[in-house]
């Protein structure tokens, strides 16, 4: 059985891309992971401007979303990154085998630094090194992510390989990504050439998990498709909007995109597809939203769940850190 690890940003506005690309994989990973470890990355949130007074609230929001989606603290380890200090120590130690040139080339760094109007923090550049520390601290084999994180995963593999070559083979595990075959890059409904995103998307093109049912239906009804006449209900690189809607429908129903294409073969136009996908998403998110409301109210229960997760996570990460410090010659003789 594989050790599974993934991290997710603390925001109150998780969207359908996060859900299909990552969260549903987290839930499925609970049956395979030994253990499955999921981390809400509050330290990563400090790399761009943020409101300190709100950060814990956003962690609670995300914890409640993950529990409402089906994570079970008895079957996985769910914790807050800032509660396990080994992550920051390992991040520093890994900077010794992280190449500045590679960090500079990361798309996320380039996009996010270009979007900063004031300070471009060093943390934004080091973001993928902290992400590598998150995963490598648990010697994870498998990392469920969306397509946008593929580049960071490759960098993390380079860091682990370089570390092992320099300091001792088999100290760290070189992880593999797990990117879903369908839904790895859910697109913005208004600008389907771009990914659905918390920070870079359009408001009407981004479906939030906690959107009201009518808002969800409306966003899908207004989704941009294309001007093919007559409408062509199939996937293709030349049809990003339609492909996106078919992929979303297939993912939330748990069927293949081909079966959705067959089902829609007799449809009158894109309107039928938009209504079908809107209804399917409303239906899929309804139970999650209901559970979320109940879970979010009890902050002390959320804190208890995170604390229980952190103590399990710390026990694993501390063993890795002891090995890393030993092979690097850091601190007193163990
Ligand atoms: N559009 C997407 N389609 C599929 N998967 C996606 N993910 C993000 N967007 C899509 C995946 O969701 C996981 C958690 O992401 P995150 O909370 O760490 O935030 P992020 O990757 O930075 O994505 P956002 O929400 O879109 O934020 P910004 O706007 O900052 O880029 C990850 O596994 C990610 O791949």
From TrEMBL:
<dbReference type="InterPro" id="IPR024109">
    <property type="entry name" value="Trp-tRNA-ligase_bac-type"/>
</dbReference>
<comment type="similarity">
    <text>Belongs to the class-I aminoacyl-tRNA synthetase family.</text>
</comment>
<keyword id="KW-0436">Ligase</keyword>
<dbReference type="GO" id="GO:0005829">
    <property type="term" value="C:cytosol"/>
</dbReference>
<feature type="binding site">
    <location>
        <begin position="17"/>
        <end position="18"/>
    </location>
    <ligand>
        <name>ATP</name>
    </ligand>
</feature>
<comment type="function">
    <text>Catalyzes the attachment of tryptophan to tRNA(Trp).</text>
</comment>
<dbReference type="GO" id="GO:0004830">
    <property type="term" value="F:tryptophan-tRNA ligase activity"/>
</dbReference>
<keyword id="KW-0648">Protein biosynthesis</keyword>
<keyword id="KW-0030">Aminoacyl-tRNA synthetase</keyword>
<dbReference type="Pfam" id="PF00579">
    <property type="entry name" value="tRNA-synt_1b"/>
</dbReference>
<keyword id="KW-0963">Cytoplasm</keyword>
<dbReference type="GO" id="GO:0005524">
    <property type="term" value="F:ATP binding"/>
</dbReference>
<dbReference type="GO" id="GO:0006436">
    <property type="term" value="P:tryptophanyl-tRNA aminoacylation"/>
</dbReference>
<protein>
    <recommendedName>
        <fullName>Tryptophan--tRNA ligase</fullName>
        <ecNumber>6.1.1.2</ecNumber>
    </recommendedName>
</protein>
<dbReference type="InterPro" id="IPR002305">
    <property type="entry name" value="aa-tRNA-synth_Ic"/>
</dbReference>
<feature type="binding site">
    <location>
        <position position="186"/>
    </location>
    <ligand>
        <name>ATP</name>
    </ligand>
</feature>
<dbReference type="InterPro" id="IPR002306">
    <property type="entry name" value="Trp-tRNA-ligase"/>
</dbReference>
<feature type="binding site">
    <location>
        <begin position="9"/>
        <end position="11"/>
    </location>
    <ligand>
        <name>ATP</name>
    </ligand>
</feature>
<feature type="binding site">
    <location>
        <begin position="146"/>
        <end position="148"/>
    </location>
    <ligand>
        <name>ATP</name>
    </ligand>
</feature>
<dbReference type="InterPro" id="IPR014729">
    <property type="entry name" value="Rossmann-like_a/b/a_fold"/>
</dbReference>
<feature type="binding site">
    <location>
        <position position="134"/>
    </location>
    <ligand>
        <name>L-tryptophan</name>
    </ligand>
</feature>
<keyword id="KW-0067">ATP-binding</keyword>
<dbReference type="InterPro" id="IPR050203">
    <property type="entry name" value="Trp-tRNA_synthetase"/>
</dbReference>
<comment type="subunit">
    <text>Homodimer.</text>
</comment>
<keyword id="KW-0547">Nucleotide-binding</keyword>
